[in-house]
Amino acid sequence: MTTATKKTLVVLGAGTAGTMVANKLRHRLPKTDWTITVVDKTDIHDYQPGYLFIPFGMNTPEQIRKTKHAFIGDGVDLVLAEIDKVDPGAKTVALTDGRTLSYDYLVVASGTSPRPDQTPGMLGDEWHKSVGEFYTYDGAVALRDQMRAFKGGRLVVHITELPFKCPVAPLEFTFLADDYLRERGLRDKTEIVFVTPLDGAFTKPVASKELGHILKERNVTVETDFMVESIDQERKVLISYDEREVPFDQLVTIPLNMGAEFVARSGLGDDLNYVPVDKHTMQSTEFPEVFALGDASNIPTSKAGSVAHFSVEIFVENFMELIAGKPMTHSFDGHANCFVESGGGKALLLDFNYDTQPLTGTFPLPKIGPMTLLKESRANHLGKLAFRHIYWNMLLPGRPLGLPPAMSMSGKIPADA
Question: FAD/NAD(P)-binding domain location, by residue (predicted)?
Fold first, then answer.
């Protein structure tokens, strides 16, 4: 077969989902028949869960940053370029350097990004100073320096709006800040305030109850139903649409998250630039040759690495059926698996899907664990720390982890909401 007759899969984005799917399909698709091309604007791959630990000195910046080239397998073309626009009718991707890529199938895996420009007053002279964030590499490093210089006062952790990447991370930051300030002898001089647009600590009622209890134990004030309208950097206050004000000495905010701009320019996205898809197959609701994986889609579950992992497993099996002319028979259930660092060398583990609230029990093995669900444990904390090694050495290369993508109910018990 000649090169001209090859089919082409183009993957937009070389983050967690994009790298995994390219590597997994490279093992499954014959090189004589298929070309796989991955497009990304930079050669930098960050282990994004590590951003959380940088402000507290638990990870160094060097530990979480590597080159993308090292994780793209042989036989996959990595193109470093900005994406201008997708033309789904013509099945082409235009790059800003003038090149055009044609595809037979397209995977959008361009993720989600914090957009501080969308909230009046968030950007300004105090951005990455008294108005901090830890959802970017630069923001996490700047916040590390701010936390080192912090001498006490009002520390406010704030969520702008849902959905956003890793929805448990603001709670984790709050718990770790409580721990960090106690160790430095500053907790008695600090009021910690958790400000959220939700009516509780988390989206899932069962988890919200458990996490809200921990916030109360740690003497954290919770300001609920707070829809931020603007930030006054000069007065150091958050202002809501219902005219409440929350003053701060150090703000740690999670800006509005949005999908990639090229998604909007291509007419592929919703009002937040996420690609509408069938939540079970991740296939575009409008263009059958287009799929969206990871944080780039609008599926109603957490924007988390575990969701990217489990949904990629389902997508790969379905894609092999699709190109063989068969119906796609695998269905993603929205399975999410989230560690929640709670400080003191412990963490909780949440396991849920589209239809099931977080349960109690053990994970991954019934009655054996070693990790416990919906309860703090040392094993959960060690599991989270170990995941960085698993991420670089198994997950990104597309090696099997031995975890089924569907949520297992074996040995698990519903908790009372």
Answer: 8-148
